[in-house]
């Protein structure tokens, strides 16, 4: 979806615009469903940073019927207590991939979906020396999983286990393009420095 003019305006203006743009996208998806029979159970909405919250609002507009929503390091500043942020009820299965969620991070760093993945702890990424690199790594990792489906998370009981890399629960593949994916909980994924990670 092309919303560059608003997305690249000052950050506060862009944040304020996310709900309306998301509703507009949801209305367009509802139109496709009515006009040409595009089934909601084949829709996978993917958004990066502010776009992570935008696709959540789009999913909410169609009653949480999109088969899958993926938030790629959903934006953090001004979103922690924002009612318009991405949440698990926005789709049938909602996944968050968090790569820059530290105190000064660009990502939200908190669980927001059915399943939330925290690559390398979710704050900084191997091979990155800037926050923007950490933030962008979310879509780079996701893109690699669409091709290889190779990054597997270990379920954690809490964020302390995510931080200390001491998770011992069940395993779930992060990302990929499986439309009817399911799962829940917090997951730690350890990756490499370079593609395909």
UniProtKB/TrEMBL annotation:
Ion transport recorded as keyword: no
GO molecular function list: lipase activity; serine hydrolase activity
Keywords carried by this UniProt record: Secreted
Subcellular location: Secreted
GO cellular component, one term: extracellular space
Keyword Secreted carried by entry: yes
GO biological process entries: lipid catabolic process
Organism superkingdom: Eukaryota
Domain Lipase: 2-177
Major localization listed first in the record, in broad terms: secreted
Family annotation (Pfam families): Lipase
Similarity comment: family membership: Belongs to the AB hydrolase superfamily. Lipase family.
Alphabetized PANTHER family for the sequence: LIPASE, LIPASE DOMAIN-CONTAINING PROTEIN-RELATED
The protein, known as: Pancreatic lipase-related protein 2
Native source species: Papilio machaon (Old World swallowtail butterfly)
Lineage: Eukaryota, Metazoa, Ecdysozoa, Arthropoda, Hexapoda
């Amino acid at each position: 979806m092309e919303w560059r003019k608003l997305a690249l305006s000052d950050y506060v203006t862009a944040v304020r615009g996310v709900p309306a743009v998301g509703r507009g996208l949801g209305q367009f998806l509802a139109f496709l469903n009515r006009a040409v029979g595009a089934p909601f159970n084949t829709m996978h909405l993917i958004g990066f940073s502010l776009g992570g919250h935008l696709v959540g609002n789009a999913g909410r507009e169609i009653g949480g019927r999109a088969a899958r929503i993926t938030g790629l390091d959903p934006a953090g500043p001004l979103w922690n207590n924002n009612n318009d942020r991405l949440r698990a009820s926005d789709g049938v299965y909602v996944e968050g991939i968090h790569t820059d969620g530290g105190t000064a991070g660009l990502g939200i760093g908190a669980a927001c979906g059915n399943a939330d993945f925290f690559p390398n702890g979710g704050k900084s990424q191997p091979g990155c020396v800037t926050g923007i690199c950490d933030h962008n790594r979310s879509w780079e990792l996701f893109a690699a999983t669409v091709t290889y489906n190779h990054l597997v998370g270990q379920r954690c009981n809490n964020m302390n286990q995510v931080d200390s890399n001491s998770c011992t629960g069940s395993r779930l593949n992060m990302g990929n393009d499986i439309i009817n994916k399911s799962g829940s909980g917090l997951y730690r994924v350890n990756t490499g420095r370079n593609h395909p990670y």
